[in-house]
């Protein structure tokens, strides 16, 4: 064991710690490791406390702390746990960004993206959860402006926000890029605005939106008929059409028009993309079965 009075040259410190002489001299020049004394020839010498200090400096550097932070620890202006916590937060953010970058690169490889698409994907994927939520809020602000923002259905529509995990899959990155492009597309905005206006104006649409149990039952049955090759004009199709119109108290032609106005694959895609990003169960397409139901109502 080293005695308290033992001193070391820079070369001896280097041999004991495995650090290069150049590095130890740099720490000394930066006043992180001031020499205990100097020899008659002017060479720096260090005692056992300096050796312990150097070991601490090396450990903190290996943990990724900068020289300024290390200086604060050594001057007792900040504790190691305090700085470790700050550094841990920075590392977590760096890891999150690296994972996101990895997911973007995987998506680029998968899609064989061109340079412009790569640039767009990286820009969109780098947005924070708050920025993504703001994009959706701005979209729905425009979609429901002046239409009675307290409407329960519209409130439910705008409540879902896209949230990418810290380590997104390439599919989630692709979904976010497609989603962001979709909500900024003027034709899609016009579509959803039109749907919102009709919903606010037509009581029967609000009733239909509130009866999701009936809607899912009808479209599930329509899908079964479609998969089985049953024609919309068949007795099964007419029976389902009569049931739907009767349950809502509407004539079949009017109901067909109401449903058809809202049956757009892009509106469905909005929720499918949201499910991919947020890790929800997949949302199967109902678009073909709704087309079958509309045809049955019009048969």
Automatic annotation (TrEMBL):
The keyword Cell membrane does not apply. GO terms for molecular function: DNA binding; DNA-binding transcription factor activity. This is DNA-binding transcriptional regulator, MerR family. SUPFAM superfamilies: Putative DNA-binding domain. It comes from Amycolatopsis sacchari. The keyword DNA-binding applies. InterPro entries: DNA-bd_dom_put_sf, MerR-type_HTH_dom, MerR_fam. PROSITE patterns: HTH_MERR_2. Pfam families: MerR_1. The lineage of its organism: Bacteria, Bacillati, Actinomycetota, Actinomycetes, Pseudonocardiales. CDD domains: HTH_MerR-like. Keywords: DNA-binding. Residues 7-76 form the HTH merR-type domain.
């Amino acid at each position: 064991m080293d005695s308290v009075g033992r001193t070391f040259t820079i070369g001896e410190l280097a041999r004991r710690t495995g650090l290069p002489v150049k590095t130890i001299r740099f720490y000394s020049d930066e006043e992180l490791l001031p020499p205990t004394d100097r020899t008659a020839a002017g060479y720096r010498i260090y005692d056992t406390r300096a050796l312990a200090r150097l070991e601490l400096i090396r450990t903190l550097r290996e943990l990724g702390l900068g020289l300024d932070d290390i200086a604060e620890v050594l001057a007792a202006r900040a504790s190691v746990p305090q700085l470790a916590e700050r550094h841990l937060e920075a590392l977590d953010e760096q890891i999150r960004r690296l994972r996101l970058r990895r997911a973007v690169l995987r998506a680029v490889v998968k899609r064989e993206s061109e340079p412009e698409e790569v640039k767009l994907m990286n820009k969109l994927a780098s947005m924070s959860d708050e920025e993504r939520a703001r994009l959706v809020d701005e979209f729905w602000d425009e979609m429901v402006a002046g239409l009675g923002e307290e409407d329960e259905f519209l409130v439910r529509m705008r409540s879902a926000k896209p949230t990418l995990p810290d380590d997104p899959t390439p599919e989630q990155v692709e979904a976010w890029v497609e989603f962001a492009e979709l909500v900024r597309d003027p034709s899609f905005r016009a579509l959803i605005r039109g749907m919102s206006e009709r919903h606010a104006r037509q009581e029967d649409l609000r009733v239909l939106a509130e009866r999701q149990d009936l809607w899912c039952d009808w479209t599930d049955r329509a899908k079964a008929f479609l998969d089985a090759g049953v024609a919309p004009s068949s007795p099964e199709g007419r029976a389902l059409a009569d049931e739907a119109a009767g349950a809502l108290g509407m004539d079949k032609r009017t109901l067909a028009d109401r449903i058809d106005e809202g049956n757009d694959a892009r509106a469905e895609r909005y929720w499918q993309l949201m499910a991919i990003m947020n890790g929800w169960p997949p949302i199967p397409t109902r678009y073909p079965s709704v087309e079958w139901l509309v045809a049955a109502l019009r048969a």
